[in-house]
Amino acid sequence: MADERDFELIEEEEEEVVTFVDEDGNEIDFDVIAVLDYKDLWYIYLSPVKPTEGFEEGDLFICRIDEDENGEELYVPVEDEALLSDLMEEFDKLVESEEDEDAASDEAE
């Protein structure tokens, strides 16, 4: 059974930043790396803009995109290890397909 997937890698020139506030009131900026529809739920892949406690360079922070009672976007961190693993596999496939498209486009030029 094939899952229908929709996704988008955010290009560097389209870079978006999401700001979270930690428990101490500090603002932490994250670059939006990708947005992915997986099993009818949307997930956002984030990477810290600058080195941040708890994140190493290249780490991704994955959240489910939800809505609060007012219809405002809400990011819920994914904590389930099996789901995180599945989401990382989907992200890797996305990156590979983008790289394949870029390589094919370069060869066509």
TrEMBL record:
Q: Which InterPro entries match?
A: UPF0473 (IPR009711)
Q: What is the lineage of its organism?
A: Bacteria, Bacillati, Bacillota, Clostridia, Eubacteriales
Q: Which species does this protein come from?
A: Candidatus Stercoripulliclostridium merdipullorum
Name the record gives this protein: DUF1292 domain-containing protein
Pfam families referenced in this protein's UniProt entry, alphabetically: DUF1292
